[in-house]
Design brief:
Strand content: under 5%
Largest sheet: 2 strands, antiparallel
Radius of gyration: 22 Å
Strand order of the largest sheet: 1-2
Shape: elongated
Distance between the termini: 29 Å
Structural class: mainly alpha
Amino acid sequence: MSNSEIEIVVEDPTAPEIDSPSVTSIRFVDVAVSLLLTALAVTLGYDNWRTGISWDSTGPEAGYFPFYLSVILAGAIPAALLAILADISLALVERRLRAH
């Protein structure tokens, strides 16, 4: 029979102590990644706009769909930044630290 209450703990001798200070905050990294994604969305949007984002006689031009994907990406970033700055957790999985 299997006991689902059993927990396997593996200790890492090189791991930092639980109360050690962090190198950076999660909020700082989230904001930095959001700004990098904004720069990527703007760059991709400009490049696809330059390629062509309209319809011609045969259908959409080469930059039509990628341009609107970059618009969607750029539109989602302010919502993520508001969640970060308002300290709203959007995480699907939470990390739990256990004291020994």
